Amino acid sequence: MADYDYDLFTIGAGSGGVRASRVAAAHGAKVAVAEEYRVGGTCVIRGCVPKKMLVYGAHFAEDLEDAKHFGWDIPECRFDWIKLRDNVLGDVDRLNGLYTQTLENHGVEIIHERATITGPHEITLSSGEKKTARYILIATGARPHVPSCPGHELGITSNEAFHLDSIPKRILIAGAGYIANEFAGIFNEFGAKVTLINRSDQLLRGYDESLRDRLLQISITKGIDFRFNAEFRRIEKNADGSLVVHMTNHEPLEVDCVMFATGRLPNIDGLGLEDVGVETDHKGAIKVDEYSKTSVDHIYALGDVTDRVQLTPVAIREGQAFADTVFGDTPTTIDYSCIPSAVFSHPPIAGVGMTEAQARDRLGAIKVYTSDFRPMKNVVAHRNERALYKMVCEASTGRVVGIHMIGPDAPEIMQAAAVAVKAGLTKADFDATVAIHPTMAEELVLLK
């Protein structure tokens, strides 16, 4: 067998790359990871973790108002964006250190340079130094897509949103996915005037239609404006620094900030994939088989760079499966069916399994159970916002094939509910479970 510098060389130290490298090292492999930015990747550094902290911060805007109806004398409050921003970034530093420590504790060598695949089993670092490895793993993730309209350089993406020096008074957010809706809720609660534009007439494609409609209704009530069937024509900068956004089917809009949340692109530029024969699809995502192997036997890829399912927990599972397969002598694949997901909007959405429309298309005869209710906390707080839970079942067996909900703490409740759907439990199993009263979650076992 050929002699190599490493058994595994991982390019990218995000969630998937870190898990794969750590587990491979635990299996006895000699491992190196190249990361040109910071250890932790999108989720930890510029994604779901700092975003969730902003979501927590934004919730206090409503909580402080609601507290008055629960007997608390709340004086006039002032929000300090800089303090929240810096505290969040400080915790990102802490997590970056923990991820680094985890790799080092397992004997993984961390190389803080950009890496390019330059030959069979060969990697060249930005310093010019060459390394060889028996296996190469690409875990470089994805980056925000920016529309190519005139003036696009005047906008920001979610990457820059965590580093703003102030909350813009008026912000336009482009997109209709989870990132767009989450930041729309965040900035709205922080006092910005938010306008969300989308080139189609739908939000959150892939989620159940009832939940999407409910979120739109609640968001409009909260003061967020929506412009549908709107595509960028150009962005212009005024002398005072404000921006004028020209779009199709709508009048121009003057704002202080434009944020693009229009999807993400696989990070493959400059990796040298074409030189070694690694195939990609029409979107630039790396093609892999069920074991994350690319078209080249010794090169693997996982996480967002493969465009299978762009979720951090999925990338982590793929990293674990890769390491167990290649270095643990335990061939392991991932089951991509029935993956739960959430949108940390205001209020949050969560779902698992088939939507009502998908179930009708695939199963034909189904039964749908819903609960449309006003959470107890909202009643006392004089807040008219309602929660909606939906259970989709196969008619002939009663098997629960989908659960979807919008309301306070929906993602927290969904994690346990997802186990039941994954296990193939029936509506009768839910009915036979005693409710925890009074809770919102009890609605799942009381559906009629």
Please tell me about this protein's structure.
It contains 13 helices and 22 strands. The radius of gyration is 24 Å and the shape is globular. By secondary structure, it is an alpha/beta fold. The chain has helices at 15-26, 41-46, 48-67, 81-105, 158-161, 178-189, 209-221, 273-276, 312-326, 356-363, 376-380, 410-422, 427-431; strands at 6-11, 31-34, 109-111, 115-119, 122-125, 130-138, 142-144, 156-157, 170-174, 193-197, 225-227, 232-237, 243-247, 253-255, 257-260, 264-266, 299-301, 341-343, 349-353, 366-373, 387-394, 400-406. Strands 1, 2, 3, 4, 5, 6 and 17 form a seven-stranded mixed β-sheet that branches. Strands 8-15-9-10-11 form a five-stranded parallel β-sheet. It has three domains: 6-143 and 265-326, FAD/NAD(P)-binding domain, CATH 3.50.50.60; 152-262, FAD/NAD(P)-binding domain (3-Layer(bba) Sandwich); 347-445, FAD/NAD-linked reductase, C-terminal dimerisation domain (Enolase-like, domain 1), CATH 3.30.390.30.
What are its keywords?
22 strands; globular; FAD/NAD(P)-binding domain; alpha/beta; 7-stranded mixed β-sheet; Enolase-like, domain 1; 3 domains
